[in-house]
Design a protein that fits this description.
single chain, Amino acid/polyamine transporter I, two-stranded antiparallel sheet, 18 helices, APC_superfamily, membrane
Amino acid sequence: MTVTSVPSGAPIPGTAGQGQRLQLLRVLGPGHVWALGVGIVLVGEYMGWNFSVGKGGMIAGLVACWLAGLLYTCVAMIDSEVTSTVAAAGGQYAQAKHIVGPLMAFNVGLFLVMAYTMLEAANAITIGFLLDTVAGLQGHEGLNQQPFIILTVMFLAWLNYRGVLATLTFNLVITAIAFLAIIILFVAVQLGASAVPLEFSAVTTDPLPYGWLGIIAALHFGLWYYLGIEGTCQAAEEVRSPARSLPYGTMAGIMTLLIAATLTWYVCSGLIPWEYLGQAGTPLFDAARVTGSTPLMVLLFVGTIFSTLASANGCINDASRAWFSMGRDRYLPIWFGAVHPKYRTPYRSIVFLVPIALIFALGAPLDQVVTFSILSGLLGYTFMTFNMVMFRRKWPLGTIKRGYVHPFHPLPAILLLAICSATYFAVLLGYGSQLISMMCFYILASLWFHFWRYRFVRRGDQFTMPWPRPIGY
């Protein structure tokens, strides 16, 4: 085991000795980054996105899919530039810390932890719901979902505890299988394997049942197709070549998701009436059931299970890295900044977040948990627009080495802000009380950090990038 020495006023808990700090291992490549990003998000094709159809109809669901795809393409481009330059655990938190300031960094860290923890809870709920559905098809009604929810979270937490390479290699395999399941379903339906033909009459007879406002409302759940692709940034401190692996893995990930999202809408909307599709718990599995093909049903059952496992697995990885980074910088108690002496993982952060995920998974309905995750993610994306503009102004091109330079600046940031603004309005239409509650939570957390926790932060220790003084300072 290698121990890297760094200057420190006091050793962090879990260190090898005075003045020495264990570091996360750099063992990941572009494929692992792809698996982390797509693995977290692909479950959005298997559940959750279809609520956008319920909000506005089939056409609104498709428009929401593509607008959200545009939003996340901007996210991926911006993240690829900034994170390949700020190659530190914590992703957007590390970016905010270096570019904006401590209070913004604290809030962004909370956005990340809440978004991923709620997404993890949603995945566990989906696994329990799917197993209950399959048991019902076999004549066993009323399956107790709670043991399966708990087992899922505990197993994946244990896997993350044991090491990042095994965790993301596992994600790589099951994510690839889940993506292939969508492709196979699409091809099989096109080749006539379905007992029910594709039917899109609702597109012409009732294209926008709730009018143009339905498109705005559908944006809320359209984000679920792609929510979490920004999680690739959390691997910045554990990839072998951040300048190469992060942009390649992130951009390949968003292209994969754009294809999967469009195929998912096409197959599900063609096989399932939009009134039912808008409230289905597992739309892709339901579409496979409609085909009447047992092999397709089994394949999409496996795909749904694998996609939810991959997503929950990646969420535990990302949430723990953000929480660990905040602890290491003393934004939270330094106890959370420990690295396991054998497995080299942020083990205390992993264990601490398990009961929080279980509370929401066992005690909240799926749409509420999805909404909490979307809102936290949306706040993070809004921050990214200002962060990107400040990054280019403080360190123009040519002043520091960048692993990737995204084109058309500042157009992606402007588009991202515009779509985020429309999505806030969409959330307000259906979940206004949740939006207000989340904003109040983050305001109270900010006050706590400003008036109490900030006194423990060592400003000089948190800036780790060897950059020149920013323009204007």
